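Q: Could you fold this chain for me?
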Amino acid sequence: MISLVFHGALIAVLTYGWEASSQPERKPMPKFVQAKLVSADALAPKKTAPPKVDKIQQRQQRELEQQRKAEAEKKRRAAIERKKKLEAEKKRKAEAERKRKAAEEKSRREKERKEKERKEQLERERQSAFDEALEEEEELLDAREGAQAVMSVAQAIQQRIESVWSRPPSARNGMLTVVQINFVPTGRVVAANIVEGSGNAALDRSVLTAIRRVEVFPEVAELARKEPSLFEREVRKTLLNFRVEDLRQ
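A: Sure. Below is the predicted structure, expressed as structure tokens.
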């Protein structure tokens, strides 16, 4: 087709040039053009063949890529493992710190408890010592008061007896008669016995006679009413000394 078109154009140019010339000219010898049939595929640009792929290089690249990915995965797992270890170590340290603080708090509380108990024990001991001292002082005061009360009652008893005591003519200064008198809480005498005689029977009898004359002692009854324990302990059985001292020789 291209050849036919080319020849047609050439003929038209030649014809147009012939007609346009006013003078005849010598016809040149026609040139023969050799036409070739060219297919459209021949005119189309030739496609370059794809370069040959190097299988070995491709395999090496795949291996390198796999190795790179494996290294990256290994690093990722190592990073995760390090993170886990760091977190575990952090938890371990936090737990150890918590236990340490708990132990310190327990130790502090135990120390405070012991210190409190020690102080309470000291306070109890001081209070006990104070109470004992106070009790002893009270007992001492009670004993003193009791002794004074007993002495006062004994003096009252002796004065009442001596007020009615008639000494015999045979009595002499310096003679001593010791008598035990038994009372009941009403102050009445229920018994009177010579514990130590004077060596003068008449003098000893005179003492017993004077006791029977009095018979009831109000001071003894009052003490028995106010201090029954003191009466039982000190006055129920009373020892009195009767000494002859005021006779003219």
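A (continued): The longest helix spans residues 55-163.
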